[in-house]
Description:
Its EC number is 4.1.1.65. The protein has three helices and 16 strands.
Amino acid sequence: MKKGRMKIHKEGRWILLGVFVILVVINLMVYFEFSQLIWFVNILLSLVTFMFFTYFFRNPSRPGDIDDPSLIIAPADGTVVVVEPTVEHEYFKDKRIQISIFMSVFNVHANWYPIAGTVKYTKHHNGRYLAAYLPKSSTENERTTVVIESPMKTQVLVRQIAGLLARRIVTYAVPSKACHLNEHLGFIKFGSRVDIFLPLDAEVYVTHGEKTVGNETIIARLNE
């Protein structure tokens, strides 16, 4: 898998511009009102702040070459916090295998489609902003649900969940849209989680506490 150069995600470009302008204004005010030492310290803090926002909105190029339509690829960077059968209440309304990936503020926050196919369902839910690693965040936090149907007609549900700091979920999926691996499903801003619901006969390859790399780590195989 060939790596490309790092880019800034489109969801962060205007935010970075706004942060840059605010920091410049603050530094000018400090320059005229305080001593050079305080101004110097403020410049250092401003650089660290801007570097953090730049790092957060990084958009690594990860072109994959997986051609097995039964494989489920991790939709996000992070840590697996749930691997268990559970009832999915919104769409399937039956028991599925749930795999949840928690993203800290230090992870890449772009989300990828975990499988190629057709988007069958999308819905955004307003909600709370509990810590994303808590189990009830899957049903109580602000979230967006996306259901993808594979070429073999197996359906997979992906749920983007806002976290304690997150205040915006961006979803590019729309019903009837064809989706592909290597394509972004969306983006979640500042600390969050992604749940995947699979059929009970899916073969799971990840365990609790394992790290995932979005668009690279194979997390499961569908029994198609």
